[in-house]
Amino acid sequence: METTRTKEYKKLGFKEADVKPLVKALNILSANYHVHYQKLRNYHWNVKGGDFFDIHEKFEAQYDKAKENIDEIAERVRVYGETPVSTMKEFLEMSEIKETGTDLKAHDMVMEIKKDMEILDGFMYNAIDAAIEAGDSALEDMLKSFVADLEKDHWMWSAFLSN
User: Fold this and answer.
1) Residue 19 three-state SS
2) What is the model's pTM?
3) Cβ–Cβ < 8 Å for 100, 41
4) How many CB atoms within 10 Å of residue 36?
5) Cβ–Cβ contacts within 10 Å for residue 90, how many?
């Protein structure tokens, strides 16, 4: 039995036209993720108050997860033979997520992180749509796992704030 491929295989199955929207979506997601990651570290180092121990630990767990996801995103861009955005200047220019200072109250830090997650969720779905359009099921699966984790964390922060 003979089978035929449905895609022209170049750079693991993606033509340049397929790759451009994927790389764009991933670079925008990465830029937002980097700013979010740095905010988590900022808040981890600078949180104060009665919830310090809980929030301090949660921020650390979240920036560790963000770091891993950022690495996966950059490596996926490299799979396509492209270069991921990688400078702070690019991150800040491309990101919808904005930096904050170090003087926020714990509640406001959590509100910021929750808002960032909503922004990240949107960019993850944009990248999933690009992956579906290009037929990149590996990227689609990777991003869907990110979404599941992010949405669970968003729910937990929402529960924390419901007091």
Assistant:
1) helix
2) 0.91
3) no
4) 25
5) 15
